[in-house]
Write a structure and sequence with these properties.
Shape: globular
Oligomer: single chain
Radius of gyration: 28 Å
Distance between the termini: 62 Å
Structural class: mainly alpha
Strand order of the largest sheet: 1-2
Number of helices: 38
């Protein structure tokens, strides 16, 4: 064995033996760390400074020092900031403070210090910092950074100083034109964000920017008062008004565009507006969405989001030619998305005129076919292959496990999670695995880090880390089964597929026992308090009290009981039941009305992005869990089936179902 391997093992063994003893000693300082957390939330600088000395030597000292320095970063001298960066060099908290400092330097327009410090910034994941960096690149080297700047700026839901600044700078240097600015305003108006819309208009047409507020408040009235638009700016304001109107009344917007405004707008303006109207109609599951999209004369005038809704509307109508042209018009990045690769392949197969097109479709399917996700699994089945367990990667060596064990960032992250600082622990864990080195950890390092998290039963870090491997897939890590006895027993008692239960839990909580959502859902299966109370009565659980919902046995019993009631109400349809579990039974009932569709098309057309992704991930998870539990080939398509209006007359809709 090489000396370095022996040394790594010795260090790991030492770390393991010392960790327990150190943890016991650290526990005395945990209360100080937690008190500092509260002081940081309150912005109590004096309390933070008074408590900091008591954290010296604690494993979470870098976090405590970060809180103390961050609270007074705006007044701290540069020498003190650099002292912190040197003291915690190489750690997550060094780079986290550097992020905050770079943002501050950008806001101050201290470009000399920003330019000197930015190369040391390792995370490179803050959008506003990157926008400031693009501005400095444009100033210092006259580099053409317009495309990246636009991409970052367009992705922002709210305006920030960095991306707005670089847009202004590039516009003054004629690297960003008027259409680029108006497109940002269109995106913001469509996203119900008037402030960034006004900020974009203010760069291009400052005298007209106040009209954005009028448009946002009452777009129909605004259009009624304008008969003609001659200038580019006036036309674009009419486009903003039509976009705003389409959010609630797509048919009214279509009528006004057809009857009055179409002739006054440029082809690009018309195409974009019809695209937005088509998207809004598609999100309302209107049958005329495709007819609106059909009025778009040039797909390349639309962005990827509008094109994706054109695909969805065409899928609902079985218009495969439109699916093909829309996917072909997407950007190179979106064309690599497994969803659009899959639907492009299906469209090619449906419209193929010769062997070459059929072979192209087969090649597209082969390029994504795997067990990794929803569309990858569907591609496997289109190629005639079942979904089976992938071959396990080679076992981790003691040296690989030891390297993960002694990684200070991973150690600190696990300790933070253990003491109740889960958000801080998650951020440091993600930094250590994804961002500390360019490109993040390699597959073997990720497997070792995931293994460490699994051993500590920190299941969300285990799953998320293992999910990132590119070539090596370890199903035991990606699809763990904590509480197997409870889940299998409860599922069996009510004739519910345990693979479905596990697929749902993995998506809901990542097996974090005390998980709580922003809307109040709790526990493994993320049950809402009112739903828990209702379900407890339905399944005969006497003496239930709200505080029991985080008890694992109780949570599984109520969660599976509710899921079974939902599944029965939707006649055994997993796609409908899964959507109902996430968005509520009422919405799922509404979404099923319309044509009978293959469930993959129905799922892709769910109006809510969260629920759309949720349904696909839960059913993909379920298929993989079934492969693990049964050790038999599985079919995602069989679980999907088709979705359409309710046809069963055996039982009435359970209107009491929450």
């Amino acid at each position: 064995m090489k000396f370095t391997q022996i040394l790594t093992l010795v260090c790991a063994l030492t770390a393991t033996s010392l960790w327990s003893a150190a943890a016991q000693a650290q526990n005395k300082g945990d209360d100080v760390i937690l008190e500092m957390q509260q002081a940081f939330k309150k912005g109590d600088k004096n309390r933070l400074s008074a408590l900091l000395p008591q954290t010296r030597g604690h494993v979470m000292e870098p976090l405590a020092a970060y809180w103390e320095m961050r609270a007074r970063l705006d007044i701290a001298p540069e020498s003190e900031i650099r002292g912190f960066l040197n003291a915690y060099s190489g750690s997550y908290y060094e780079d986290r403070l550097r992020t905050d400092w770079l943002l501050q330097l950008g806001k101050r327009r201290d470009w000399a210090t920003f330019t000197a410090e930015y190369p040391r910034y390792r995370m490179r994941d803050d959008r506003e910092v990157r926008c400031y960096a693009l501005a400095t690149e444009a100033m210092n080297s006259k580099a053409n950074v317009a495309e990246e700047a636009k991409r970052l700026w367009y992705a922002l839901r709210e305006a920030d100083d960095g991306c707005t600044y670089v847009a202004e700078h590039l516009h003054s240097g004629k690297q960003i034109n008027g259409l680029d600015l108006w497109r940002k305003a269109r995106l913001a108006m469509e996203a119900n964000r008037p402030r960034p819309a006004q900020a974009a208009v203010d760069i291009e047409a400052p005298r007209l920017s106040e009209q954005v507020a009028l448009i946002y408040a009452d777009p129909e009235r605004y259009l009624d008062k304008r008969i003609i638009a001659i200038t580019k700016s006036r036309k674009e304001l009419a486009v903003l008004a039509l976009i705003r109107l389409a959010a609630n009344q797509p048919d009214k917007a279509a009528e006004l565009l057809d009857r009055h405004w179409s002739i006054q707008l440029s082809q690009e303006e018309r195409n974009w507006t019809w695209g937005v109207i088509g998207k809004q109609a598609a999100q309302k599951l209107q049958d005329n969405a495709s007819s609106h999209f059909a009025k778009v004369q040039k797909d390349s005038d639309l962005n990827d989001d509008l094109l994706s809704w054109k695909v969805r509307a065409a899928l609902r109508q079985g218009q495969w030619r439109q699916v093909l042209t829309a996917t072909q018009a997407m950007s190179p990045e979106s064309q690599k998305d497994p969803a659009w690769v899959y639907w492009r392949a299906r469209a090619l197969m449906a419209t193929a005129q010769d062997t070459a097109q059929r072979q192209e479709a087969q090649g597209l399917l082969r390029s994504i076919a795997s067990v990794r996700g929803f569309y990858e699994q569907l591609a496997l089945e289109e190629l005639g292959q079942a979904i089976t367990l992938p071959e396990r990667p080679a076992a981790l060596t003691p040296q690989e496990k030891a390297a993960a064990l002694i990684n200070p960032g991973l150690q600190r992250a696990l300790y933070a999670i253990q003491m109740g600082l889960r958000p801080e622990g998650n951020r440091e864990w993600n930094y250590s695995t994804n961002l500390h080195t360019p490109g993040g950890m390699n597959d073997r390092e990720l497997l070792a880090a995931a293994d460490l998290a699994c051993q500590r039963q920190v299941w969300d870090r285990c799953i998320n880390t293992s999910d990132r491997t590119k070539d090596a897939i370890d199903f035991d890590q990606r699809f763990p089964m904590p509480l197997r006895e409870i889940v299998v027993r409860r599922s069996g008692d009510i004739k519910l597929d345990p693979a479905y239960v596990y697929g749902l839990i993995r998506q809901e909580s990542r097996f974090v026992m005390d998980a709580r959502s922003h809307v109040g859902a709790s526990g493994l299966m993320q049950v809402m308090p009112a739903t828990a109370k209702w379900t407890a009565k339905k399944i005969g659980m006497t003496g239930f009290t709200p505080d029991q919902i985080t008890d694992r046995e109780v949570n599984v019993a109520i969660g599976t009981g509710y899921l079974k009631l939902v599944l029965d109400d939707f006649e055994g349809s997993m796609p409908l039941a899964t959507a109902a579990y996430n968005a509520g039974p009422g919405r799922s009932r509404t979404w099923r009305n319309g044509p009978v569709l293959e469930a993959a098309i129905w799922a892709e057309n769910i109006p809510f992005q969260e629920t759309r992704d949720y349904v696909k991930k839960v059913l993909s998870n379920t298929t993989n869990y079934a492969a693990i539990l049964t050790r038999q080939p599985q079919s995602l398509k069989a679980r999907l089936g088709s979705v359409g209006p309710r046809t069963s007359t055996v039982a009435e809709v359970n209107k009491d179902l929450p």
